[in-house]
Every structure is written in C-alpha cells, then in structure tokens.
Amino acid sequence: MMDSRQVLVDWLRAEFATEQASDFARLKRIPDTRVVWFLDTFTRLNPTEQSAVVDTLTEWSSYSFLGQLRPPAVVERFSRCTAPPALAEGVRCTGVNLLAGLAKTRQYGSLQGWLTAQGTTGLAAQPSEHLARRLEDLKPIKIPTLRRLVQRAFAARFATASQDMGSEFWRYQGTLGETAVSVEIRYSGRMTRPQLQYGVEVAHPDVRRRLGGITFEGVLGVGFGWWDYLTVENAERSVALLCDLVEYAARLPERLPLQGSVGN
What we know:
The protein is an alpha+beta fold. The chain has one domain. Helix content is 44%, strand content 14%. It contains ten helices and six strands; from the N terminus they run αααααααβββββαβαα. The protein has helices spanning 4-21, 33-42, 47-66, 72-82, 96-104, 111-118, 143-158, 216-219, 235-250, 252-255, and strands at residues 161-166, 169-176, 179-187, 196-203, 210-214, 226-227. Strands 1, 2, 3, 4, 5 and 6 form a six-stranded antiparallel sheet that branches. Helix 1 (4-21) packs across helix 3 and helix 5 (96-104) crosses helix 6. The chain is globular, with a radius of gyration of 19 Å.
C-alpha cells in the first residue's frame, strides 16, 4: 500500500501541474520577489529539469501537511531550488521598500540612476511585468492604506472580524460556507521585512483536521507568503488575489487526500 506521504506528494504534484497548465496564472501575480525569481528561473529549465524541481518542491511541502520534520537533504535540495541569491540583482527581485530607499538617495537620485550605477541591464532592469508596468510604478503602498484594503476585502468575502494583535500582527476571523477561516497577517513598512506576511488556519466541522500556517505558494513549495512587491498601483488587485488564495486554503480540508492523517 502506498504510504501517506507518497499519496500527498502525488496530490501536490497534481496541484502544481494545474497551476503550471494555467501558465502560473496565480503565482505570477503574487507580489513576492522570491516567487518572481523562482518563476524566472523555473521557466528557463527544460522539462526534465523542471520535473526534478517539482519532485523537490512536492516532497518539501508534504512534510508540513503531516507535521513531520524535514530531513536535512530535503532542506538542502529545496533551498538550492528556491532561494534567490543573497543580493538579487536589479529591480525585479528587490523589494519595493528597499527600492524606494535607493531611489531617494543622493548618490543615485532615481531607480534608473541606481541601475546605471550598478551596470544592471536586461531582465534584471525590468520590473516584474505582472506587477508593474514601469520603474515609476515601483512606489510602495503605505501600510495603513494596505490594512484598510485588506480589511474591506476580507469583510466582503469572508465576513471577517479584525483584531490588532500588536507588534505589527493582525488577525482576521470569518467563514467560507461551513469552514472557519482565520488569517494572521504581519504588516511592516521596514526595508528588511515583507510588507505583508500571511498565514491561514482553516477548520471544517465534518473533516477531522485543522490546518494552520497555510499559504498558496507554500502548498506549491515556491514561497512563504512574504509579499514585498506591493505598490500603490498593484495593491488593490493584489489584495483581491490574496482573497482568492485564502479561499483556496479554506477549501483544502475537503480536497486533501488522507482525511484522517493530515493536519493537527
């Protein structure tokens, strides 16, 4: 009989294949430089290389669903597949809070000045085309404005109540059908942190599992829900996407295999 983790790995591979067949319709709209870097890298691989990467991603993700520690070899393979260079080049894989700081420095005067000084050209000098049309669009959304967008969108979709947990953390609790949904978000305007870091906890009365810390990109193994490319121009549609990803998480308890084996 196939073991529990292999059943999960096969299911996760099918989830990744569905997203890939859509030309990564959701992933490419996620305002996260780690996801941008992954897609830029993954789509340049040949089919054999892509399949090997997906094997690593699905194996990584399966351990979290079963609440098991990942072996060091799995961690090492995952990091090699998904971690951008320590100093990612250009505007494509640099968070917008840091970009805004660079643009304001007297040394550069603008993002174009910074790119020129660095000798950055080609793809690295172009914003992610799904997140910004031009360099001038790379202006970070103010955190109070972002919080208001999230609160309004969540209230409309999930009838959520919001709670300020302190230390930049907010919790939103609501429902989708019979599923209880709790989303925890950490907001930050600091250059060294994601602007929005989210995780979803869901519980369904008819399913023997409670799943926590879920992100759509985490299920696929390509990110952690660390959104650092939220701009004035893309924030509203990014928050609408976040609602879709929370709904994806809310439907997982009824879709995952191994009903009695997965979750807390």
